Amino acid sequence: MLRTVQAKFLGVAAFFVVWLVVATGFSVIQSLGINGDLEAVSRYITPVKDALSDIRSRQLEQISLIDRYMRVVENEGSQASLLGGIEIEIDAKQTQIEQAFRKAFTSAALGRAQASSHFEQGGLLNLDVRMREFADVAAQFNLGVERLLGRVGEGDLDDARRQENLVRGIHRNIVLDLRSEILLLEKYASEMVENVSSREDFLIQAEFIMMLAAVVIGISFAYYLSQAVVKAVSDTTNALNSVQSGKLDTNLDFKGKGDFSRLADAFNRMTRELRVRFRMRERFGKYVDPKVINNLLSQETALETSQKRVMTVSVVNLTNFDWMAEHISPEKLVDFLNDYLTAMTEPIANHSGIIDNFLGDRVIGFWGPPFCGEKGHAQQASLAALEQVARFNALKTKYADLIGDHGLDIRIGVATGEVVVGSIGTDKSRAYTVVGDCVNYANRLEKANRIYGTQILASHETANMATGEIEMRDLDHVVLLGTEHEVYLYEVLAPSGQLSDDRRDWRKTYETAIALYRQGEFDQARPLFEEVQNGIGNDFAAQLMLNRMERLSRREQDREWDGTWIVRDPYERRDVES
């Protein structure tokens, strides 16, 4: 009996295979013909038509430019300043026309070689030759245009007008011939599409009939396979329902090494990943920035460990906020704070940064892998700081009546260095944050803005990493309050290439002066600092250096001068105002 069943199974299977081979062969033959026709239209005929349409459009644009050119000549003479720009545009259009002709000729030549059944009969016969003829006529048109421009350049306007008439005649012939050729190609393509559509309808009907026969044969196989498949599907469905109900520890176990065993392995891997992702989302649901979750979901151990990385930290502080809190109604204060925090946090997110936390009106952000590149985080932090200043300036305009002249402004410190980054906190409340000297350094830089009258101060490491991308000013070498080592301070000015010539000269003068100042050449540095001070704006840094040199001349620092100032007073900006 077993052999009889096997013989029937093999007989039905053999018949089914033969049927499939015949049906597939028929479909392939028909599809190859249809695809060949469609390929001829899409790869050769349509590109030629599109190229000719592009040529026609460019010809019309070029003749329009010639009209404009001649109007300028008539109105302003052959030496008008506008003529040079129009001539460049005419040459550019000619270049585009020549490129389109090359594309049309190439497509037509390829079509003749690859789809000869279409390109060697009817309207497409010798299409590549006609493309070459079109290009020759266009070359005559271009030669006429060159002569026209040459006559204008020589001041021979009468001959230029005659040449203009010749050019217009050639242009009319080109446009009419192109239009006829385009219509011919459109007609051929339309007829081809209709023919393909008819053949597709026939193929669909034939395939439907063959499909019905295959269904009838396939049903016979379903009986023999139903028992094993139904059991496997039932087990898989029950497992999926368990996962859907929240039982993420569900597993599938199919014996053997077949397809169902591989399905079980894939299902079990899925449930393991779901458990990890659920645990991460449960913990990271407390975090502010969604990029933290998205970047760490693929790292199962990232929740439990911290890492040392080189990152860039930014600290933004709002000055004179205490005055607002005392003198402005709570409703208006909340509106202002909402707009302020939006203006400070959106630039961080826009430049691939992470919003660390808020301390009153202070906003802290950080940049670094895996949220942005190893080498680009200093640049992104600097760009974010510049955008924060721009947005706050707009905010001051919006709230001008509310702020008045009470000196409300922001100060930003940007520092790059090694930090510890990871998940820090208790079991009930955790934060993905950074800690380390770099964070403290950014805080000190933010406060140091008060000394120099600046808005954005960056560390030496930030300036080195952002070299070539951000315009900065070498501001000072100091030992900041609370530290014992020398630091180099840089003022962030603008994105690379966006500093005006006046500002570049202003920066160069300052940096020349500061170099002399560090060498102790005070007499040479003083007039340069005065030039900076009297130049663009009222530069507090230049005035500070002038006051320092005066104090150094009186030997108010208790050591030999080595170019580094020791900041002893956190409010040392009084030196500028004194």
UniProtKB/TrEMBL annotation:
Q: Give the organism the record lists.
A: Thalassospira alkalitolerans
Q: Which Pfam families match?
A: Guanylate_cyc, HAMP
Guanylate cyclase domain location, by residue? 309-446
What is the name of this protein?
Guanylate cyclase
Q: Which GO terms describe its cellular component?
A: membrane
According to the UniProt entry, its GO molecular function terms are: adenylate cyclase activity
Q: Where is the HAMP domain?
A: 227-279
Q: Which residue spans traverse the membrane? A: none
| Single Gene Ontology BP annotation | intracellular signal transduction
Tell me which InterPro entries the record gives: A/G_cyclase, Adenylyl/Guanylyl_Cyclase_3/4, HAMP_dom, Nucleotide_cyclase
